[in-house]
Amino acid sequence: MKKELITKLKKKNIKLCIAESMTGGNFAYEFIKNKGASDYIDYSLVCYSKDSKKIFLNLENDLKKNDVVSENIAKKMAINITSYSKHHKTMGVSCTGLASDFLNKNLSKMSTGTVFFAAYFNKNIRVRKKVFKGLARNQIISRTIKEMIILCNSFV
User: Fold this and answer.
1) Strand partners of residue 15
2) How many CB atoms lie within 10 A of CB 12?
3) Count of CB atoms situated within 10 Å of the CB of 125
4) Contact by Cβ (8 Å): 85, 45
5) Residue 41, Cβ neighbours under 10 Å: how many?
6) pLDDT by residue (tens digit) across 22-69?
């Protein structure tokens, strides 16, 4: 799936602009570890804290109205991350979720394993929600990355 996405991005001259939260940069790493990643990656930003989402992704007002783990926040992350790009064809990709109980108690009303991820391309947005129950933190992160790749593939 990842190779298929890379081929599509390169063929269509699309660059990824990535805003990750709960995956901590692992989505971007899946691509950057491959030679030639600069052909399809514009940049990546890990906004793990609420404050970083406010500052770098301009989500202050959205976070006043929405849970940090929500469809709207994932959507706005994917849209807003593309605003820094000078490339003419970009896809914004984002994720926000809960991979452990600690965050659940302190930042979100959602249950552990709840993830929202989004892709924004050509002024169209797709947002998905998944709930990974009974999985360890690293398994939730791995599954989220896989689902993000599937979503991006469906868009290009």
Assistant:
1) 90
2) 12
3) 16
4) no
5) 18
6) 999 999 999 999 899 999 999 999 998 888 999 999 999 988 898 888
- Cα–Cα–Cα angle for 149, 17, 46, rounded to 5 degrees: 90
Q: How far is CA 27 from the centre of its chain?
A: 8
Whether 91 and 14 have beta carbons less than 8 Å apart is answered as: yes
Task: Report the relative pairing of strands 124-131 and 90-97 from DSSP bridges.
Answer: unpaired
Which fold does the domain 2-155 belong to in CATH? Maf protein (3.90.950)
Q: Which residues of 56-68 are buried (b: 16+ CB within 10 A; e: fewer)?
A: bbebeebbeebbb
Query: Where are the chain's structural domains?
Result: 2-155
* CA atoms of 16 and 121, how far apart (whole Å): 10
The whole-model pTM stands at: 0.90
> How many residues in total does the chain contain?
156
